[in-house]
Amino acid sequence: MSAFQHLPSLWQSSALLAAGAGMTIAVSLAGNALGLLIAVPVCLLRLARGRGARAAGSAYVSFFRGVPLLVQLLVVYYFLPALGLDLPPFVAAAIGLAVCTAAYQAENLRGGFLIIPAGQIDAARAFGYNGLQRQRYILIPQALRAAAPTVINEMILILKASSLVSVVGVADLMRVSQNIVARELDPIRWYTAAALIYLVINLVLALLGRAAERRLNAGYARGTL
Amino acid sequence: MSFDPSLLASYAPQLREGLELTVVIWLLGSALAVALGFMLGLASYAGVAALAWPVRIYVEFFRGTPLLAQLFIAYYGGPSIGITLDAFTVGVAGLGLYGAAYFAEIFRAGFASIPEGQLEAARSFGIPRMARIRRVILPQMLVLVVPSSTNLLIILLKDTAILSIVTVPELTFQVTGMTLETFSYVEPFAALAAFYWALTELVAFLGRRAELRLGGYLRP
Prior knowledge:
Number of domains of chain B: 1
Number of helices of chain A: 8
Order of helices and strands of chain B: HHHHHHHHH
Shape of chain A: globular
Strand content of chain A: under 5%
Radius of gyration of chain B: 21 Å
Strand content of chain B: under 5%
Number of strands of chain B: 0
Oligomer: heterodimer
CATH architecture of chain A: Orthogonal Bundle
Number of strands of chain A: 0
Largest sheet of chain A: none
CATH topology of chain A: MetI-like fold
Low-confidence stretches of chain A: none
CATH class of chain A: Mainly Alpha
Mean pLDDT of chain A: 89
Largest sheet of chain B: none
Number of domains of chain A: 1
CATH class of chain B: Mainly Alpha
């Protein structure tokens, strides 16, 4: 707060709000990126042939989709230090968001994998593609393309859910606006401002999602009904 | 901190009422979300110019703002423009309109996953449009749609807890009332978590069953 102390009150609060928005963007970006990285192996486990691998993937999804995000954040922040792993609030928040969203993203991606015809995998095998090459060149690009809109859906959900990270001590947009309201006593103005900022961030995310879809769709004819 | 199950037994009628209302609101809201979401997804895929922008604005508004804010606008803001709705209606409509924005994107993804060649082939065989959608597109797109829809149905189920804030007497509302009357928190909240967990596992189980049925044609 001290950095903005020379400013008049309204400007000071606006600057704080902007800093909170920056923190919300940073923590949800980190959580979403890390979450997607975790989601790919979880999804592959769910699709694996081995019974043990499938059970492990199912257990992950069932746990992280079933336990509320708030509880997961509190566990990461308060429980891991008890095991000797002391995490700064930002890292704890990003990990908490990531492990939760990974369960949902794994399911979204799995839908994308399911629609790939089995014949393509046989063909790739016949051409001598090994398992890793099949994933890299045949399966993952198509699965990502098909699942892109649902992946963006979940990213927007996590951006909104990131309003919970203040419980582990991250000064995100929601916490900052609560602090400002506590001082300025004008809840309608400041919460409306916060809501609009969330909306704008989500709009930008949705636009980026559409741009990514256009890239992934390059080379595909658009179907007409 | 002792665990006293008899406390739950004495509140059994309220818990049952809350659980029933949670399930009813979730079912009605989800049905609205799926139906409206399907139409929105179809409209945004069909490429009708007049519909493109309204659908896009709908999706971005309902997806981009928190459900709680939407409920507040409908429940507390509605009367000032002459629309007075009871809490149950606000709950069902709020959940449905919110979920529809996400379902619209899920269904759009489903439509877009059908290869253009198949639609061309269906057209050249003279299959009418409704039959193309029902017999060619739907059976294939549902394979992509089901896992994401299960996700979203679980999210909507957990989001019904938010309705307690606009005085819908569902499960979370009943349990909160119980904590205020008894000053015990462990039993009520443990029961609350257990109920939601059981319901989400049930939804996940039904989702898996649906997947096996719909994806049967993909397995040789």
